[in-house]
Amino acid sequence: MKTITTFQHKKVLVLGLAKSGVSAALLLHKLGAFVTVNDYKPLNENPEAQHLLEQGITVICGSHPIELLDEGFEWIVKNPGIPYHNPIVSGAVDRGIPVLTEVELAYLISEAPFIGITGTNGKTTTTTLIHKMIQADERKAILAGNIGEVASEVVQTAEEDDHVVIELSSFQLLGIDQFRPRIAVITNLYDAHLDYHGTKEEYAKAKLNITKNQTEEDYFIVNADQQHLMELASSTKATIVPFSTVQSAESGACVKEGMVYFRDEAIISLQEIVLPGAHNLENILAAVSAVKLSGVSNEAIRQVLTTFEGVRHRTQFVREWNGRRFYNDSKATNTLATKSALNAFESPIVLLAGGLDRGNGFDDLIPYMSNVKALITFGETADKLEETARKAGVQIVVKTENMQQAVQSAYKHSSEGDVILLSPACASWDQYKTFEQRGDIFIEAVHTLK
Fold this sequence. Notes:
By secondary structure, this protein is α/β, with parallel strands linked by helices. The chain is 33% helix and 21% strand. It folds into three domains: 11-100, NAD(P)-binding Rossmann-like Domain (Rossmann fold), CATH 3.40.50; 104-305, Mur-like, catalytic domain (UDP-N-acetylmuramoyl-L-alanine:D-glutamate ligase, 3-Layer(aba) Sandwich); 316-447, Mur ligase, C-terminal domain (Protein-Tyrosine Phosphatase, Chain A). The protein has helices at 18-30, 47-54, 87-95, 102-109, 123-136, 151-154, 170-173, 194-197, 200-208, 227-233, 278-293, 298-305, 335-343, 382-392, 403-412, 435-447; strands spanning 11-15, 34-39, 58-61, 75-78, 99-100, 114-118, 141-145, 163-167, 183-186, 219-223, 239-244, 253-256, 259-262, 265-269, 316-321, 324-328, 349-353, 372-377, 396-399, 419-422. The strands form three sheets. It has a nine-stranded mixed β-sheet with strand order 7-8-6-9-10-11-12-13-14, with helices on both faces.
């Protein structure tokens, strides 16, 4: 861990807790800052805040009093989920107080270089692949960010020869100042999180922050199949490394003659790769680019790609039973992700979908539902999804109350050779706390089928 004096004897407000806020507060305290933590949850219901209080950190809980801005804070470190229209955050911006996220702190103290991955879809799979490939090469890789541990905590023990592999959301990337990954990856860019960012232009700008501090010595891996993304990326100072599933990418990764290539080197045949789906081929090309630039051997890459079947809750193979293959794609919380999942299979599909109603429709799924023989719905959006399925010509639509019922019904309406796919196209919060909980219940229900 680097010894920095940036925050020593400076007043810093940590806004919002959860794991990243606790880690940020403790790190800043260790760095000699005068830390105040402000969290909306009352103190008597807030064990994290109680722990910080025991460490001698000032804690204010139960509300976000705007008067905090009069306390002379020189920095604010906010939880990524707190929007910029929060009065304290917008007030700080108006006053010129820098607003950071915990990722910036992690970068400032890390001895190890960063490989940063962002994008609308595919971040988790790409990050996981990179991490596994580096480890397969018998080198140390630290998994951090949205998957793995809190970055500002795990980098405290990182060494120069390690690799910090970090998944980054647009929310996190809005709160950086000096953060500079040696290798940056953007998997793709579609419209998303507009309720947070306001416009697709602001969303794209947040994503492109991943490369804003890169120099000619760094690499920026970009999806060359998205022309608008390549145009946005052209402003970088880093060396652009393109990847493409449909065209030659001589300076990056592509598919030629049934093989994955990096530059002029054949890495692995497509037939050997066990991870299903065209969208995952994009993730594989991005990951191969990142690890080849890091000096990882082809043997390590092949070892991972011939064994890795998917990230938990992301087109994850669960089991084959009575001729049916079950896949858990609970992380598909929007139609874009569900399109990718539907596109990954040629077999007839029994689709399980539904969840929180955010006001959107589902008709953009229709062109991807030609293989869907039955739709099993649940949650607030059940009726909307049924309407879409009828338009798509799906003959069987069954409304269920919960995941256990949905799995039973899906099996009842399936045949040997079918894929039974949970890909909800919705957030989980109407019935389940997280998409992970929803996926775990699906997995359990699949394994208890009789």
